[in-house]
Write a structure and sequence with these properties.
about 25% helix; Uridine Diphospho-n-acetylenolpyruvylglucosamine Reductase, domain 3; 3 domains; 13 helices; Uridine Diphospho-n-acetylenolpyruvylglucosamine Reductase, domain 2; Vanillyl-alcohol Oxidase, Chain A, domain 3
């Protein structure tokens, strides 16, 4: 997906059709000391789904989704995309939290935490993960749930691909109206808007997902394009979101009934395959005056795009040690990115992202591993008090670090 890594060439690509194929691939790679990458959707910003000279375990042929409407669960193959999952569940007027680009793989998205437009209402993807089938480094097939191998399920809920190849997920589903209330609203990127947004973060009900995206307007200016999704009663949403329509800085846009399926694909073109992509992100506890000043300065320079992921709600009602994902009490995640179809622009684009990010970093509280490049040496601090338990799991399930193309948790044995 990320064109920055098109130059990498695995020695072997194994296109798996099922769990048995994955077992054979893992055993082959381990016995020959091959570097292993795992490709679900391949939507990896740091290019971890491929390598030079190693083995790629390609799950893209494993994409079926089976919905049990009575049990309100979905069984999902390890290579399915978020769009596959949304399509299957929305057909039953049900949903689980998925991300905002439909060609992202369910596997990597989920194992890193899984933020999306409904996480404030339903929780992160990992909070809805009921079980997983995992091929471990020694070739064993292990089922992890609250009833069996619960420690492994704990680690899979945010610990990334460190413990094996997940070939099947089972998710909890929630009743969901496929027509939501929302739209895109346009504002300037200035102090007044960001102070207003900070107030919204404090008062927004769980049904509300409000995420500004700082992008060019096509006329040489930067604007804040705010994606608004209300997953609940439309009349209640219109009332709750009325301050956004009344804010004096509103430049354009409207709110109304929207197809959730269409909302879920609206960023697909922007994040199309083959672009040169570089991204760093970090959690923010609040939009303080200092943070707002930095954002207004750097975002209006136009050298980067940046956006917010609105957290809180159900995500914050899970204890930090209940899953491997420890960042439960932050207000939002803020991503800063560069994207181009021209590799000649990469050096300047990467430098701009880093300058913006390093200006904000002192105000950040860790980073979202799914949306971050350059995690080497920073993983332990990012998991906080949960890290020693993750190392114990790594020692048990992957003591030789076969699965290391990820935000790596290094074994201590």
């Amino acid at each position: 997906w990320n064109g920055m890594f098109d130059h990498k060439r695995p020695a072997i690509v194994v296109q798996c059709a099922g769990t048995d194929d994955v077992v054979n691939a893992v055993n082959f790679a381990r016995d020959r000391n091959l570097l292993v990458s795992v490709k679900g959707g391949g939507h990896s910003f740091p290019g971890k789904s491929t390598s030079d000279g190693g083995m790629m375990i390609d799950l893209s042929k494993m994409y079926s989704v089976d919905v049990d409407a009575g049990a309100m669960t979905a069984r999902v193959d390890g290579g399915a995309l978020l769009g596959h999952l949304d399509t299957a569940t929305l057909a039953h007027e049900m949903l689980t939290t998925t991300g905002t680009v439909s060609h992202t793989g369910v596997g990597g998205f989920t194992l890193g935490g899984g933020m999306g437009r409904t996480d404030r209402l339903m929780g992160l993807a990992i909070d809805n993960l009921l079980s997983a089938t995992v091929v471990t480094a020694n070739g064993d097939v292990v089922r992890a749930s609250d009833e069996e191998n619960a420690d492994l399920l704990w680690g899979l809920r945010g610990g990334g691909g460190n413990f094996g190849v997940v070939t099947e997920f089972v998710f909890r589903l929630h009743p969901f109206n496929p027509t939501v209330y929302g739209g895109d609203l346009i504002y300037a990127i200035d102090r007044d808007f960001l102070e207003f947004y900070a107030e919204l973060l404090e008062t927004a009900p769980d049904e509300a997902n409000i995420e500004p995206f700082f992008v060019p307007d096509g006329n040489g200016n930067m604007i804040s394009m705010v994606g608004v999704t209300w997953s609940g009663d439309h009349a209640a949403g219109e009332k709750a979101l009325a301050p956004m329509m009344k804010f004096p800085g509103l430049i354009g846009g409207e709110l109304g009934p929207q197809s959730y399926a269409e909302i879920q694909t609206k960023w697909d073109g922007l994040m199309a395959h083959g672009g040169q992509e570089y991204l760093k992100s970090g959690y923010l506890n609040a939009l303080t005056p200092e943070v707002i000043e930095i954002m207004v300065d750097f975002a209006n320079r136009g050298a980067t795009a940046s956006w917010f992921q609105h957290l809180g709600g159900a995500t914050a009602r899970v204890a930090p040690d209940a899953t491997a994902f420890a960042h439960r009490n932050v207000a939002l995640n803020y991503g800063i990115g560069y994207s181009s179809r021209d590799p000649a622009q990469n050096e300047a684009g990467i430098a701009a992202v880093r300058e913006f990010y390093y200006a904000l970093e002192p105000h950040m509280a860790g980073f979202y591993t799914n949306l971050h490049i350059d995690t080497e040496g920073r993983t332990s601090g990012n998991y906080g008090p949960n890290y020693p338990r993750l190392v114990e799991l790594k020692n048990r399930y992957d003591p030789t670090n076969l699965f290391r193309l990820n935000a790596n948790i290094k074994p201590s044995v």
